[in-house]
Amino acid sequence: MISWRKHYKKGLIAIGLLLSTSASIYGQDGDPKNGEKLFKANCTACHALDKQVVGPALKGVVARLEKDQGLGKDWLYKWIKDNKALRASGDKYANEVFEKFNKTEMQQFPNLTEKDIDDILAYTTNPPAPEEPKKDAGTATATDGAQAAPANNTTSNIVIISLLAIAGLLVWILLKLRQLVKLGQSEDLAGLNETRVKSFSEIYAKYHYVGKGLLAVLAILATYGVWNWIMWIGVYKGYKPEQPIYFSHKIHAGENKIDCQLCHSSAKYGKVSEIPSMNVCMNCHRTISEYNGKYLEPGKDKAFYDGEIQKIYAATGWDSEKQQYTGKTTPVEWTRIHNMPDFVYFNHAQHVVAGEQAIINSFNKKNPDNKIDVVCKACHGKIDTMNVVQMANDFTMGWCIECHRTTEIDMNNGYNKEYFKNLHEKLKKQYPKDGGKITVDAIGGLECGKCHY
């Protein structure tokens, strides 16, 4: 009996050692959660877990390498830290991988420690389950639908009762009208009919002063209405057209914190803020072929976003399976939202560079409960909260003038300090309001030629 127990304990120890060795071999001696962070920070530009991107799919790479090539994690340490040196050493498999993937040289990561690499490999071996996407406010769930069903029934009953009440009222009115018709045909009203005014001319002759007054009021209201209509031609505040490819600024600029100028690169140093080319989209979506974000807009699911990414591929002629361009492109006909008239000159660079901090400070001073952090939002609204971009302001001449009259200039910044060097004292005397504070109108912000030329 003692001998059996002794061998049983040895067997358990052996199994435990085997399992621990196995776990070590297949990358389980790292931290998958930390590995996920490192993987997303360093690897996702070229790799995905479950499919080939620029490089091969990495899920189960440790076990696959051990099984197919008989190589362990020591080889992966060398490959990840300095694959160029590994290839230069004549390593057969390193050179085979290089040739297989079109001689695309992998980035070197000498900054990653062996512990970091262990964490990444643990993530590729056993990735944590993805979190459920969060739904925006207003997104209905199945439970919400079940709870809303009784409320819907109640609403339907109220509508039916209201319609029956209206029908009853209409029947009552018809009956009363019938009684009035009969009364009109009776002899009792014969005397009254004789005293009635027979024509409009008689009414006008009797009440012509009142009539002229009403006509004058109507003429004034009509003139005001026409003038107001003319003044608002071309003002499209709230305009938000559908685009051929759905693009959510809330996901890109809000959830993912992508800087505006990464896509709109000419907004800071150019006259206009250009519409990004599809190649700008492909800088990221060359390796992001599906939506795995945590945010879902109401009424939309992952399949919807994946379909829009496929539209990008169709427009640029990108074959995600072969990881190459086909050469067959399709222009995208975007619908323009913000469009200055031809007779108006507006320079983005002048506002974004010279006026950036002044505009932000002025806006936040006027809107303490709705502050902004980037100058773009002063005119375009909080784009990072918009799923569909819309015109947030009037963009009328009056709107621009009001901004020029209230935006205080920072006379101490490098540009203004040098350019207005000899005008500081003169301007302070000429514009003594608010303790000598100088607004844009003081330096020509209201001159017609500044915007109309």
UniProtKB/TrEMBL annotation:
UniProt keyword Metal-binding present: yes
- The chain positions of domain Cytochrome c read 30-128
Q: Which residues cross the membrane?
A: 158-175, 214-235
Q: Could you tell me where the Low complexity compositional bias lies?
A: 138-148
The answer to whether UniProt assigns keyword Hydrolase to this entry is no
Q: Which UniProt keywords apply?
A: Heme, Iron, Membrane, Metal-binding, Signal, Transmembrane, Transmembrane helix
The signal peptide annotation in the UniProt record is: 1-27
- A Pfam family (short name) is Cytochrom_C
- Name the record gives this protein: C-type cytochrome
